[in-house]
TrEMBL record:
This is DUF2270 domain-containing protein. Keywords: Membrane, Transmembrane, Transmembrane helix. The chain crosses the membrane at residues 80-97, 162-181, 201-224. Residues 1-27 are annotated as: Disordered.
């Protein structure tokens, strides 16, 4: 068969000719088995994305620890190391927010199955509803993110990254307010005024006042994201145990 006539793995469903479809479950036992296997598959996907999120958080913690060691262990080290650490964990935060949006899709499916099906098996309450199965089927037919990128950023910032930013800010403030150390180990340039702090905060040709203003604006955005609450609770509306 010529290559042009072969079906690509990415061929759209509408482009595939009608053929015999796989048989659907015909008995309640077959349906239960299919649901169980599907549930296990969704658990696996959710756990995989959870592992990716944890990995990014671990990288961010490692970066903070390494940069703090470099900056604070040597009196002569430059405070720009801490500013660079802020930039690095911001990049990791952006990556983690993207991964969190994928994780949230699979978590929502799993939680809908647990609330609508497995909880009813263990302890039936009220009239059984099939809304959970309709919601899961709709998500399978047309997967879509359940939260925006900004909301995902705020959630990960509130969970972990706000504390990392706070530690870096305190270390940076300590660094620019400490006296400089000469090559002989003697301290000089004691900080006695805000002008001395501004001088220590200078970054190359950039004056210290401009650097301080930039850091203040950056942390104003971090504070806003840390205190921001989404209008819709989503999955967070069901219970208190969330990641």
């Amino acid at each position: 068969m010529p290559m042009s006539a072969e079906l690509s793995p990415l061929t759209l469903e509408t482009e595939i000719p009608e053929r015999q479809t796989p048989p659907l479950p015909q008995t309640p036992q077959e349906t239960i088995n299919a649901i169980i296997h599907y549930y296990r598959g969704e658990i696996g996907r959710m756990a995989g994305w959870r592992d990716r999120i944890d990995r990014t958080s671990n990288w961010a913690i490692t970066v903070v620890a390494a940069m703090l060691s470099v900056s604070l262990s040597t009196p002569s080290s430059h405070h720009g190391v801490l500013l660079f650490a802020m930039l690095l964990i911001s990049l990791l935060l952006l990556i983690e927010a993207r991964r969190y949006r994928f994780f949230d899709v699979y978590r929502a499916r799993v939680r809908q199955m647990e609330r609508g099906y497995f909880a009813q098996i263990l302890c039936p309450e009220g009239t059984p509803s099939f809304r959970w199965s309709v919601s899961v089927a709709k998500s399978l037919r047309q997967p879509a993110f359940l939260m925006g990128y900004r909301e995902a950023l705020c959630r990960r910032l509130q969970r972990n990254y706000c504390w990392m930013y706070l530690i870096l800010l305190l270390a940076w403030a300590l660094k620019i307010s400490s006296p400089k150390i000469s090559s002989t180990g003697e301290p000089f340039g004691h900080v006695r005024s805000w002008a001395d702090v501004a001088e220590n905060a200078a970054l190359g040709p950039v004056p210290g006042v401009a650097v301080a203003i930039g850091v203040a604006l950056f942390y104003a955005v971090v504070l806003y994201g840390s205190l921001h609450r989404a209008t819709g609770a989503g999955e967070l509306a069901h219970g208190e145990v969330h990641v």
